[in-house]
Structures
1.
Amino acid sequence: MSKHSLGLLRLKKIVYIPLRFPVSSAGIFSLLLIPTIVILLLKGHLSSTRTDRLGTLSRLMTEMTLIQSFRGDPQRQAPRLWQDRLGINLAKDLWRRQGRGLWWQAWANDGEAYLLLPEILWPMSVTSNIAFKHLDEMVVIASDGLHRQQLVQSLGKGFVHSSAGQSSLQSYCSSVLVHGPAVTWSPDGLASVSGAMAPLLQSSRYGCLSLRFERNQLKWQGVVGYRPFGLAPVGIDASPIQHRPMAIKLSPRRDSDQALLNMQVKSMDLLFGSLLSKQIIQDSLDKNYGINQKLRLRLASAPLAFSLDKQPKGPFQASIQIQLELPEGSSRWQPVIDTVSQRLQQRDFIKEANAVVQKDQKIDVDFSGLTLWRQPYVDGEKVVGGWVWQQKNGKPIRFGIALGDSPMLTEISNEPIDLVDSDVIKLSADTAALYRLGLLNELWSAPVKQARMLNMNLSYLRGTKLKKTHWWWMSGQLILEQASTP
């Protein structure tokens, strides 16, 4: 499998043809699959120009929506972007001289892709049709003179490369780009790769990740945030509260044959905060379901567990199980539940209220309010969803919702939402199985479609005030299946 074909972004057909911003496939964890470029993360060659490059990249990060660093591979042909910007002959010569050194690609707001090279590679003279610009110890090559001029104007007349006054998060992002394969993005860059799912990814509107590929594992780590890194206060460090190596220990899976995706979230606003803040969403929830501002705030702060499981039989390929921690009990939410029930019945779903709970003797908890919803099929009625309350000391504390199946009582009782203090999101997924079921389309890159396991952790940064922060540490890995064909 070609290393160049395993791209960080699915830009056109090949990683190196980003003439327009890509349109990404959707999914809650779409951002988590951004670092799927499979390239070797080796130590960058040290030089006296590294400080200047840090400053140059820092300035470019304020103007570009996404910047990615790559390591050269002289055994392969020069990337298409090199050939487009430099011409075939010059691209071939510089690619060979580049060796295993780093080069960069940056995207502007209009989708323009810029090639960035170390100045030491640049020849004394080039043909006049190459639109380049020297920026300290780097050379930026645009597609034409107009885009070069636009870049110069956006950077301003005085290009200052000092990193003085930068926050620790800004300095970290500049550093990862000059030490090895990495990627950094802004909200516009995020929107270009996540499309309609961008509102679910607001906790990662800004980000920078370093990447490493070892055997069949792609690993990444770095910082992400809701607000610009330059606004991070003094004291916040670009490292997790608890040190996490790039390799994450795999947590046991309850059923390796059925589990497709599992996620635990410390509070729902990390995923849905942006949606819940939109007036049109608020008005709809209030008018149609009676979820007022007070209930919306409670939902936003509720811990969430989400699982997607393969269905071996029945009308659906997969089912969803959701658990919400609602310690105030069912009384506050009963009007909402009644409204949802009415709307389902209006759509001809068949309600089975007060269904009998078949308790396993191993389950040392009580349940109440088990409700199943059925729908008629050719071979009879099938359960298509439902909900149930888990009780503690006779009081409902956790609400379980199922789509495509009945609520899994064993999972509700045996798998508490037990994130440690430093974690805010934990996710694992079998993306190869998702692809085989047709739940991931062909637009996803090859590593994602071949990964038997994706793991990701989002945790607090060192120096943050817990439960009140806009920046987090992200780490994860993608474990590939062995390809059956070359």
Note: The two ends are 6 Å apart (CA to CA).
2.
Amino acid sequence: MKPTLEERLRALELPLPPSLYPQQLVAAARPRVLQLPRSASRPVRASKWLTRALAAVALLVISNFGALQIWPSYRGVLADTPVFGPVTMGVLSGLGLAPSAPGATPTRLAVSQMSGGTRVTLRAGYADAIRTVLLLKTPQALVPFFSGPDQPTLTDQYGQTLKGLPDGNVSGEQILLFPPLSASASTRPISLTLSIPAMFSESTKSAPLVHVAGYPAGTKGDYPGPVTIGHWSLSFRLRAMSGVSLPPPAMQVEAGTTYTITGIMKSGPFLDVAWTESGLAPTQASTHASSFKLANAVLGDYELYAPTGQVTTIVTQSGSLQPTSSTATNEAIFAINGAGTYRLVMGAGSSVAFEVHVP
């Protein structure tokens, strides 16, 4: 059976959402719906509909080409609108990102390279003044290294190099987290190169360990094999959301523990808060150490309340504990919604509360 006109038109993969197709084009692509007379004129009338359909396609292409020349921002609308499946959407939403989220929309990046017999595709990227997030498509079992000489790096056009951390592999969707880009990225897109020297198999943790070159023997350079050696170098351009540093509130002391906010950064719909807890009692330090060992999460209990009184969502969290000094260092990124006075509550029994004024 010959493909219909609609099938042939959609096979062209024009970068347009279905809502932009004119109704007459859709109707023209389904000639069976037309009430055409059974006469010799039928082929002629069908050809008129075909002519109109092709004219509509040409008009769409010409219009979009003209719009790209007259309004450069329109190019961004077409190129930066990601089309992701449910798995990808789930991975991104875990980081507070979504294709339709104001200020938290990842940029589509279709950059791919084959190396070591394995193809890696850079699908999307997001950057603000707090973090840089890259979404990769890799074979389901492979994960980039999180330390050592094979750790992935991100180098910008100015020569600055950042080291990245993989955030697990979900059905081949791989997240890489990097520190924020240089300040110039907030004014215009900058050129970046993602370098991945090798990857190891995360799904075969019970397999014999393979020592990776570059690590001293007996160190954590031993990973589940097999190790896929290649060198994936993916170049792209990305712009970052600007940010503003907010003044931290005064420290508070509760039950012998000093709570100090060391930094607050607001960028897009996110708020990054860093703080320390010093003078922890031995039982507190022990509890915190267990929490880190089991969950690698921020120490203690804490919540950020929006001006409406609702609890905000924690996007990412991290921390470390220094038992010798009984000091915990913590950081958390919250998804916020608008300006106002937020309340960061922490400590045993949520007895410590900081007010954070977000412009």
Note: The chain has three domains: 5-77, 86-238, 243-358.
3.
Amino acid sequence: MLPHDVGKDITPYVLMDTAAIEQIRAPLHRIKIVVRAMWVQKGQGAINLFPYIKNAFPDRRVLSLTGDALKASFPSIGQTLGKKMARKTGYTVLSSKLVRCSTTKNDTIPVNIQGRKFFLPVQEYKGHFWVQWSCAYKRKEKIEILLRWQSDHYVPLLQADSTEACKVFDFKVKKDVIFDGSDTFLDTKTGYLAIQQAVEQSIYAGFQSRQAYLLKVDVPFVCSLKYTIGDTVTFTKSTTEVIKGRISRLKSFCDCEHAKTTLWINFSKETVNLENIRNSLQHSVQGVAKNKEEKQDPGVPNTTHIEPEHLIKCVSVRNAACQQGKSMQNREFASKTDLVNVLKENLTEIYLDLHDLTNKQIFSRNYEIVKN
């Protein structure tokens, strides 16, 4: 900005017909604003997985011939769940309990050991399995706003013309926050303010590009001795136009007939004020950012609306009591040790396949401004 002090008037000293004005910076007719937001959406909660474990068993009954081994392998409090046991995957056991149902009369499986018949009891279990989940979704969002100069301000350009050049202003926002009720940044109040600030800075640069001018005049050498680079001067071009600016360069020329100095003066035709910026800002971003894509990102829910299917891929059971019974029933064993070895090879096992909530993948979305 130019200083507001009263400049030295050079009008009386300017030699006739030497004043020349040129625009020293190309005006920005079109502006492309790109706002990129990179943020991590965090959330946490708890879920009882035991009902889903029961659903994996036949008839929703947790039955096994090897219940003691099943109980011993059941996850304990504080244990981390997931395939990547060497690091956190987003799941920690809060409370775990697996006990035998004492009031239930269960079936038995007959087996033969050295000609004698024995009956293996089928054990039923109940309990709970509370797991705390903590997610951290990496999100990357982008919005592009095209502005065009029209009627003394910048207005949105709905359809881009690839043949027309434009100045690109790129802004980046980084956040690590938790949003309640939103899985995006750009259509929140904070995101809107980020867009508004980016547009405001771009419009300011656009206005400045339209106001950078250079005045070139010649004055007598003797008169130029009172001026130095950086001085603020004024020049009355006409009765309605007074130019005020700073001297950026001086060059003197002397011969036997003439002694003159050329002054280069940088000036702006008008001041870039907040009112001009506000007017353009209202025309540019008087709306909200909305997702361009119709479909939401698959498997990337809002952290405030986590459903079981967002956590659980599948729950499966290997060697439930019914499968164990089919392989053991009326089977002849040489000894009890032989029976125990066969049972060890057919232990009841529960498999939990959970979504990795600390996935390295970055989920991207593109947005556009939609008018209210």
Note: The two ends are 35 Å apart (CA to CA).
4.
Amino acid sequence: MKYSDDYIHECGEIFTANNLHARGILFEKFLQYPQEILNAVIFKPPGPEKADDGFQPLLPGQRLIRIRTDNRERLRLEREQIERDLQPGDNCVFKNGSYVERLHHHSYSKTRDRHVGGNG
């Protein structure tokens, strides 16, 4: 489209004064729809947009808590599933947050050889 020099100059001043290039808006698009872009970007009501459920987005601290809660819930569900899958005769125990199979050996101290006639 052809625009007059005055129109381009006026739009250019508005474009640069509102730093629309930094917002990712092309000057050519701004020339085509200046009022719509200004209404959408500059004159929008302050505050964060509401999500589809009507709530505002979570703050950074709230997001971290939600992630932790989701992870705890996921781990709880996994643990319940494992408990359901375990048979009464299975040789598993719950230690340090996970199920492990009982070991069928004895542990001895590292100094056993020294006390039982070792060469040391």
Note: The chain has five helices and two strands.
